[in-house]
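Q: Could you write out the predicted structure for this multi-component system? I'm mainly interested in how the pieces pack against one another.
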Amino acid sequence: MRAWALLLGGLILWAAHFFALYIVASVFHTTLTARILTLVLTLICLIGCALLLSRLRSDKETGDPFSSWMNAIAMLGALGGAIAILWQALPAVLI
Amino acid sequence: MSSETGFDPALYDRFPTKAPRPDGELEELERIWCAPKGWQLLTAVNNNYVGTFYVGAAFLFFLLAGLLALAMRAQLALPLQGILPQETYNQFFTMHGTVMMFLFAVPAVEALGVLLLPQMLAARDLPFPRLSAYAFWAYFVGGLCFFASLFFGLAPDGGWFMYPPYTSTTYSPGINADFWLLGIGFIEISAIAGAIEIIVGVLRTRAPGMTLAKMPIFAWGMLVFAGMIIIAFPAVILGTLLLELERALNWPFFDATRGGDPLLWQHLFWFFGHPEVYIIFLPAAALVSMMAPALARARLVGHELIVLAFLATAFISFGVWAHHMFTTGMPALSVGFFSAASMAVSVPAGIQVFSWIATFAVGKPRYNTPTLFLLGGLFTFVLGGLTGVMVAMVPFDWQVHDTYFIVAHLHYVLIGGMVFPFFAAFYYWTPMMSRRALSERLGKWIFWLMFAGMQVAFLPMHLTGLMGMPRRVYTYLPGRDWEITNMISTVGAFMIGAGVLLFVIDLARNFRFAAEDNAGNVYGGGTLEWLPTGLYSTRSIPVVTSLYPLWDDPKLADDVEAGRYFLPGAPTGLRETIITSPLRAEPEYLQIMPGPSVWPFLSAIFTAGFFLILTVQAYTPAVISGILAILCMLRWLWETDRPVAQEEVDVGAGIMLPTYVTGPRTHGWWAMVVLLIVIGMIFLMAVFSYLYLYGIHPDFWVPPPDPVWLAPIVGGYAMAAGLALLARRLLARERTTLWTPPTLILLAAGTLIATFAVDFASWRATGLTGPASGQGAIVHALLSLQGLLVAIVAIMALYLAARASRGLITKPTNTSLDMVVLFLVYTAAEGVVAALLTRLVPGAA
């Protein structure tokens, strides 16, 4: 499970962020509260991505090709997840 | 090199072995894996047969739905045509969409999974061959009966997404909508059965050494596809169940005048419906990624990025469902979030497109028929993707919503993203299953007819939509400037039809099923499905060391065929395959596989009978059919989970593996966990519906039963789970008699039943009924789901007792007992969550 959690970590964080934003927008509609909560949730998820990336960087040099492969995919996923989280939060600033 | 299971990877160096294989070994393999003949083919479970039946059935439904499309295009060619009456037209467009999506697209890719995966993974078969057979027959029989409703004027007519209130009994009083709701709900069960098979198959039956990094991209695609089915399909299963309950029992889930909400249906449907597009596209994209290297004669560019793109698509696709609901008046911020996600999902699709272009750019492509279909599909899909980004923009979507622009967009995406790759796959893999390859000369005609027809039919449709023609109208008035574009679209549709007709002729002339003397590796693919195979798959199971084993080791095919790798024979004398670990594919144990059986076929017939007879409201025959289905399933299971005499066997080069393993390492445990995720998702969707209805209409809600009832309910469920866990623990003790664990399970089941009765009675005491309000409906729906699980536990407990009476419960551990305990503990946990939710949210206030 640990290997899968690391592999999919960035995408899981994106999904958690998305569904949290959906709940916030459904409950608080288009209000200042919703925007602030969106920014807070975004910050939390970005910190999550940063922690995940730092963990993956520390695991990087194992010398095992398969572990390196998993690590590379996970890092790309975490990086992509962070960008997608930022993108996902933009409507709270723009609308 | 690290190990996942303690297996020493240095053991792989023993292969290929040098010693000659004993005489008669291959003949024994052939005898064990031979398929039944004649009428007994109905009992076949070999993936070659079931996969071929499956692909053939899916293609049949493609033809049938295509004929409906041609009739519709003929009707729309000119204004005020009288070819199809309005009511028939409604049935045709509903059936065209439904059949294409539910009976062609998803089953077709699932079918290719059943057909190709064992060969690509060099497994003897998928881990639950009888489940594959059940999934196929359920789908085929159910699908045919569903389609036949057209001939009686009883076909559904509410569009493929069946929005209430249009589909409520008020506006759709006949049984047409019931056919859709029960038929589709049932076919989804078949899809889920296939998905469980694929997930466990990909993760647990790969050839030794085939780590996730060396796994063929099609297996990745199918793994993600099956995972998405597990998450997405429960939403539509719950949705169809709720709408059918509303129609049959007057429980107002979607009736806004009584505390329901029609938009709840749209949320449930599209939570399934949009991922469905990617569920169809991803396996097709994976097929393209498999074919592109062979056709371009170059390794796939960006293999890792494509894997990541699959995973990212899977996740993001669950965040786009409400972009089908931009016009329903959601909060502006919600609309913004869904718009952003809808644009984001195009990024992973773009990664794949660039990867394929780069593969063709660096390679030396041959412009044969599969290449043409592949490139034609790429071009078409990109155009569909671009209009997809356009409709992700909310103001544009408001303009074109429910117009022919959307019809054009979705056909570009689905035909480019799935149909053309599917035809490319037909040409590419037919030599693996047929004595002759399909005709290249005819194939090129077919491609150009279909490709040109596609553009002629659907490009003008964008304009028709922009000029304001709405979808789903059976005719239109002259003088609106829609005549020319409609006529062009109709000509294009018939060009596609001509291409498909030629393809049928090509199939009839050249396809000759053969698992052994097939045409072979015509296109020079480098993956394992092109090893020489028989009905037993490969003679021996190779150690995989690269993504393109046949390119990197030219001697591999000879060594495999000579039995110089894993499992060159059948050490137990039964059907068997090697179960490997999920990440690094290290050999763990030998799975004994079931052979041909009539029970999966009969189970499927009676399951289909139950749902279809229910549609015509013949309740007694439906219940009898349901009981027969359960009995057939139990009979089918009765023959499984039987240890063999040899506890360990030599699977080649002196490597010993156990033949009976229990607990979380086993493929059965994994399958049960996946099944529980499906059930959990259905429950989660019910919880969403509960909270949604409360959020929309809190004024309709009445106080729940006194929270004091929670004590016996939570206590009862906890006790049942405790008894089940105790039964598993006691089985391992030497002093325990064999009857003690099943008795404890029976007690646990009894406790569950009693607790459920308390839960139900406490709600009835409040006077709240199902038809009373949205709250009454959803509370009773949650109770019904729990009641269903409790009933299944009761059947399982009796089954376990029957096995115990025949001495079929093994000590110190037993797989059947493990499965029952898992299911029972889950049922108890779900019961607790449901009881707490319905009593504490919103609570007495």
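A: Regarding packing and overall arrangement: Chain A is about 90% helix and 0% strand.
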